[in-house]
Specification:
Helix content is 29%, strand content 7%. With 406 residues, it is mainly α. The strands form three sheets. A three-stranded antiparallel beta sheet has the order 2-1-7, with no helix packed on it. Strands 3-4 form a two-stranded antiparallel ribbon.
Length: 406
């Protein structure tokens, strides 16, 4: 009976949150294409919250999930299966979130109009890009892989080297990097303000300012941060198990969970449930791809030699979808990745490098069967039930073609 209660309660809340996030506004607009009037979908911002959020009386979307019924040690989101999440970034309006969705998928944000945020954070690839090293403007190759954006609303530091303290700060990195989107603040503002549809949408999303005011940089950053904060993944097989439904995981997956949390493998000490990261920097001695110079990582961010070769512990949510793995995309499969940790402390550290390896990195001597079970468990963290829809059309595609509304 208890399992039935959990399964019904979980299903009801999941259904409610999903229904509350359904926004299908469709209106017609005519635009010119080869001198012919063509019907398309009018861009109109959603006025309800995405899945996983509820709308309050101030028109703000507030995160709602089952982990809020649990407590958390020092509000850090660490402990057993029934543990709360860290503090979430929420409180954006539905209109700001939806505007951010259009911006996220619109290549107009890049200098050449060909690279969007979704280029390196593709929803079909776990909001990563499936590449070892990401490709930016003019086929430039970046220095690290693209991390997933799932559950970034709970993170406090961003980039592999933790050099950004907010989503707004983080996004300015790729926006203005000559190897990524290649833009600059002046050109970005000039481009955005030249698109009438965007000026109208920004006025709707930020109603407190005069309607005819020009688009401001902080509004662009806020809207994208709002959308990225809405990317919630907390409805996996693991979550159903954590909330009391013991039948959610099979025998091999439960074995993998037990190994993951054991004092032998010690995975959970850095990848702590339920976010599956402790958000700290860890020096683990991860190798670079052949021919690549050693990446000093967080040493540069903190000006601290003890963090040389250190990187932010990533969340393992939807890890099955985000291969290849590590900051450099060194490992192509989850099996290769978990095997790295059992090969011995510092076995991949380059000759001549003195690294202060994290004390959790040791010689667990896991068997082949135990490694396989770990991979089984990691796949239970996959959940894309709240995957947002890519826009049918983005504002930059209709900026000069609108004829009339019908």
């Amino acid at each position: 009976m208890r399992e039935l209660f959990y399964i019904k309660g979980y299903a009801v809340l999941f259904l409610l949150l999903t229904l509350m996030g359904s926004c299908e506004k469709k209106e017609k607009v005519l635009f010119l294409e080869n001198n012919q009037a063509v019907e398309s979908t009018q861009i109109e911002l959603c006025d309800i919250c995405p899945p996983g959020f509820v709308l309050n009386e101030d028109n703000r979307c507030i995160a709602k999930n089952l982990y809020q019924q649990y407590e958390s040690l020092q509000d850090k989101g660490v402990g057993g299966l029934k543990t709360s999440l860290p503090q979430v970034r929420d409180g954006f309006s539905p209109q700001q979130i939806d505007l951010g969705r259009y911006l996220f998928f619109d290549p107009v944000l890049s200098a050449n109009g060909q690279i969007s945020c979704a280029t390196c954070h593709d929803p079909k690839k776990g909001f990563a890009d499936g590449r070892s090293l990401s490709k930016g403007i003019n086929d430039s190759i970046t220095e690290r892989s693209s991390p997933s954006l799932w559950n970034v609303a709970y993170l406090k530091k961003f980039f592999w080297d933790a050099r950004a303290g907010s989503l707004e700060e983080q996004m300015q990195g790729p926006l203005y990097s000559p190897k990524e989107m290649g833009n600059n603040p002046q050109q970005l503002l000039q481009t955005m303000n030249a698109i009438p549809v965007y000026r109208s949408l920004f006025s709707e999303a930020f109603p407190e300012r005069p309607e005819k005011d020009s688009i401001q940089l902080h509004e662009i950053y806020t809207a994208i941060a709002a959308f990225e904060s809405s990317l919630i993944s907390l409805n996996s097989k693991y979550d159903r198990y954590a909330h009391g439904f013991s039948g959610a995981l099979n025998e091999n997956e439960i074995k993998g969970l037990n190994i993951f949390r054991s004092f032998v493998a010690r995975c959970a000490e850095c990848h702590t449930p339920p976010l599956f990261t402790n958000q700290q920097i860890a020096v683990i001695g991860s190798p670079e791809p052949e021919g690549h110079a050693f990446d000093i990582g967080a040493e540069k961010t903190f000006n601290d030699a003890t963090r040389r070769g250190g990187f932010k512990v990533p969340s393992l949510r939807n890890i099955e979808k985000t291969a290849p793995y590590m900051h450099s995309g060194k490992f192509s499969t989850l099996r290769e990745t978990v095997e790295f940790y059992t090969k011995g402390r510092g076995h991949a550290v380059p000759e001549g490098e003195k690294l202060y390896l994290h004390w959790h990195i040791w010689e667990p001597e896991l068997t082949e069967e135990e490694l396989d079970r770990l991979v089984d468990f990691l796949k239970t963290l996959t959940d894309e039930s709240f995957l947002p829809k890519a826009p049918v059309i983005v504002p930059s595609e209709i900026k000069n073609n609108i004829l009339e509304n019908s």
